[in-house]
Amino acid sequence: MLLKHACTPEVVCCSGSTNAQEAAHLMRQKHVGDLVIVDDPDDERVPLGIVTDRDIVIEVLAKGLDPASTNLASLMRNPVVIALDSEDTGQVLERMRAHGVRRIPVVNSSGAAIGIVTLDDLLRLLVAEMNALFEVTETGQRRERHLRR
Q1: What are 115-128's pLDDT values in tens digits?
Q2: Regarding the domain with residue range 3-147, which homologous superfamily does it belong to in the CATH classification?
Q3: With 0-12 CB in 10 A as exposed, 13-18 as middle and 19+ as buried, what is 84?
Q4: Are 32 and 89 spatial neighbours (Cβ–Cβ below 8 Å)?
Q5: pTM (2 decimals)?
């Protein structure tokens, strides 16, 4: 399946100058666990990095840093691992494995963020495909029982 059909289109973006406290509030408000750091949140939104709720806990809170004075540019995973919306889910899964990441911003041909794909998204797709395979088996068995009465 192509990523443009599999990704979550509501990617939440902010700039690298956003501080960790503002980021935590934004994550809470938008009900997300990550923010894509972009060059311009109001324009093209080209991904520069990504920051997760775990990054804030491990890199700011656990180290006793001030969340109000720690900007996301200092926390973001860089270089950012991205995927094109025209790529297949299998390709992005391999990229996640190779880079050890669970979330990847999805960009269009211009490089602008149009979504995000997470490990949970891919697991959901896999389960749906497995259920479809199971339905094939059940349908075949029902048909056979019906024809052999």
Answers
A1: 999 999 999 888 88
A2: CBS-domain (3.10.580.10)
A3: middle
A4: no
A5: 0.83
